[in-house]
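Much of what follows relies on a compact textual record of a protein's fold. A record is reproduced here so that you can trace the correspondence yourselves:

. . .
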Amino acid sequence: MKIVFDDFCLLCFKCIFFLFLFNAICQLYEPLTNICNVLAVFVWLVIIYNTKNVDKSFCALLFPLSWLYSYAIFSELYFELYPSFTPELMKTTYATGGLVRLILYNSILFIGADIAFKKVKMPIEVISKANRYGIYLLYFVIVSLLITSFVTYGIPLLEGVNRFVFWNKEVENPLFSAARGNTFIVFLLLMLLFNERSKKMIWMVVVLVILTALGGDKFSPFMVFILYALIVIVIRENIKFDKKFCMKAVGGVLLIFFLLLQLIYYHYAEIAKAVNVNDAIVARLVEQGQVWWMVDQIMLCDNAGLIGNAGIIDEIKAGFSLTTDPYYYGMYKIMRMIISQDMVLRYYEFGVEFTEGYPAIGLIYFGYFGLVVFQLFIGYLYGKCAICFYKSVRMGDALGCAMIGKLHSLFIVGLVGGNLWKLFSYKAVLLVTIYYLWCKFRRSLRF
């Protein structure tokens, strides 16, 4: 297979050269660390901006990683520029140059994804009746299960119950939890009907969003909804990005974020019982960068920091086990390294799901040198997943979109959340196998 480096790849290589230079300066001359941190952020913005020059579909498929990585990057920048005491770490942060290394590894992953992604020109197909009715059926099943769960166990948002406690402890029927965990798949499929059944689709989306909010979720699912809506709309070319649409889109996003802010405020005031709600919200946003900051410091001081350890083998074994205890793997493995055991146990008992743990977990397993190779490898896999996503959406294949959307979510869980054991798991293998067989079967049938 011939590897072709396009302009975006070459740009990333140039940026990586400067990031290596900035990292060397941070190590050799500490007073220039923050200057290098700021320059590294500018390099990151240049990379993000230039994804649009590759292909708009690739840009949309890469956007979830771009957005979520930027979340941690700007949090890390705050830690580096302004010394902050973090209660979880029980440490006061300082400028270390870790931000430069974080951006460096994220950039390497983008190179792997770009090498793998090759747009296949194919027409946009109209959604068939079989696919349309299949979407309606899945929507009805998910909505019915969510409503039944609220009738049976109560409504977390209105009763002031923490969502982790409610869905992991109080809800005993696994079907209800599964319905809640797959609302994003239903939303993704509804986006396929964006042009053909716009009014009906909008009302179905509104109902789904309301039920998600009543379930106690305050931010992440809604952000995922927006990201998947963007992916499908761009790939299917449902809208014309003119000035009028852009103004409406900006207004709509601002409205959504305003409503989410109210929901978040309610969560911290009524459920989390925060003494100072504003400080609690700001602290929650800022602390997204603390995992990389702390792990980077540990690995710098560790003699094994350059080569890592063989823990990835145990992580993969956990993914193929039916009785895996998340306490010993993924994000909980990281948290046991950086915060007190009492705090980890408290999170574990609540069933808390952490975010922004990657590439910190990769740094632990592979070290600074090995992580370069792993980033290229995992980025390449993400690029291949993006191709399948692109084809399924263009064809309007509801079942294919559902399977590849689920696989894509495992990439997000692994490449953002840090739970690699969920990405390298029997679920991922099953999804890939079934999707492959479905593609073979689909060639002989046209729905």
Remarks:
- The mean pLDDT is 84.
- The longest helix spans residues 360-395.
- Residues 7-120 form one domain.
- The beta strands are 85-86, 91-92.
